[in-house]
Amino acid sequence: MHELSIAESVLEIVTEEARKHGLERINRIKLQVGELAAVVPDSLMFCFELLRRDTIASEAVLEIETVGIVARCDQCDFSFEVRGQVFRCPRCSKPVMELLSGRELSVSSIDGETGEDDGTDQRSCCS
Ligand SMILES: [Zn+2]
Fold first, then answer.
1. Which of 34, 69, 91, 96 holds its CA 20 to 30 A away from the CA of 54?
2. CATH match of 2-112 with 3.30.2320.80
């Protein structure tokens, strides 16, 4: 399953980040997912909840932020948001090949706690 391998790599990334930043517990993970990444958020949540057990992120909340598709026309240099999968420039109506966003699949931020001070020390980091 597509989402299962994504959930696995998200956990790998946050575990690695947590190690780098000395976090002992992860509270929140923000994920940016482009519309073209073909991820079903509910399915990804489900897989994540299965895999997070017995990891540093066992209590972590996964927030999925959907990123719209933005394309740039190389004919007239116009940038626009693609809606309804219509990859055509609204200004000159040429087909558009270059995408500025929409394929994202990345961890944008991680909130966690270092074990010191009874976990009151909150830290954020970005990958
Ligand atoms: Zn154009």
1. 34
2. yes
